[in-house]
Amino acid sequence: MIDYPEMRFFTTFRIGGRAIALVDVCNEEQLDTVIARCEDGNLPWRILGRGSNILVRDRGFDGVVIRLRGTFVRLKRLDTHRIEVGAGASLQKMVRFCLKEGLGGCEFLVGVPGTIGGAVLINAGCFGGEIGSLVDKILLRDEHGFLKWKNREDLVFAYRYSSLKSERAVVIKVIFRLFLESEEHSRKMIRVFSSLRRTSQPLDWPSAGSIFRNPPGGYAARLIEEMGFKGVRLGRARVSPKHSNFIVNLGGATASQVENLMEWIRREVYREKNVWLENEVEIWR
Ligand SMILES: Cc1cc2nc3c(=O)[nH]c(=O)nc-3n(C[C@H](O)[C@H](O)[C@H](O)COP(=O)(O)OP(=O)(O)OC[C@H]3O[C@@H](n4cnc5c(N)ncnc54)[C@H](O)[C@@H]3O)c2cc1C
Fold it and tell me: What does the pLDDT look like over 210-225, one tens digit per residue?
């Protein structure tokens, strides 16, 4: 356990004040114990994956941050087409595992720096693929502490949305259904997706990926670019010249600089284009 961790060390944005504590749990029993203690003490708690889709405010998060380790990062093959992956495992580990097992379908996730839990919760996707389309079943810990399996039919996935979001549940593990694929073809796909990512995203700077959701029928990046906002800076936060829906931390950016830059972009885009951009990044306060 780390007392009063500086959250900037636990997010890809490298931004964020302190939480009350950061606790790594290795199994469901430990998870139950930590959540029960938080709830007994009226302390808010949240699960942290890789912190790659969050902006933690400068004042920090007045609660306990829980990371899933140990049994939560295991992967195993179940049968011909299915694998079971712990919610704390990284997407990269899953992509590598599938490559080794001769399974295809998740190559598009290469380079998305999140965990299975964080990715399933928001139905992470790119290059025309979405993780939700691969889900067969999910084991959840519901808000009362009960474990329950949810089948595909009980879940709704849409653009950067899953019905899990409103449930206040913890994703424990996920069963994915993939297809048999030659290693050679998967490797080729991985190379293609990695290179698309390198050429289109500012991977040399800390960020939280796309800042705004794409509005229906359009692209947030295109709107921001058309406004001429590429490269615009507020303090140490800058709209990436490479991808205008990324705000990057030039080193020492604060959450309020990022949020103020976001609000300014949102207002200006609305004034000029009549489109209200919604956050894709989640703000922790
Ligand atoms: C360089 C870069 C590129 C990116 N590219 C993409 C992309 O192409 N496509 C895309 O969709 N996203 C992209 N992202 C955003 C991000 O990587 C994904 O959204 C990722 O899925 C977030 O996972 P995480 O583990 O980091 O979640 P976190 O940011 O740690 O958490 C996000 C939310 O999920 C919750 N959560 C995490 N784990 C669990 C769990 N086990 N149970 C319940 N709730 C949980 C957290 O409490 C929080 O509410 C990118 C980010 C970066 C920095």
Answer: 999 999 999 999 999 9
Task: Name the CATH topology of 220-284.
Answer: 3.90.78
- The residue contributing the CA closest to ligand 1 atom 11 is 124
The 3-state DSSP class for residue 222 equals helix
- Summary mean pLDDT of the chain: 97
Q: What are phi and psi of 110, to 5 degrees?
A: -60, 130
User: Ligand 1 pocket, 52 CB below 6 A?
Assistant: yes
Residue 165 CB burial class (10 angstroms; 0-12, 13-18, ≥19): middle
How far apart CA 148 and CA 125 sit, in angstroms, is 25
Instruction: Tell me which amino acid residue 51 is.
Output: G
Task: Establish whether 194 is a catalytic residue.
Answer: no
Residue 283, token pair as written in the block: 């703000």
Architecture of domain 2-70: 2-Layer Sandwich (3.30)
Residue 109 CB less than 6 A away from ligand 1:
no
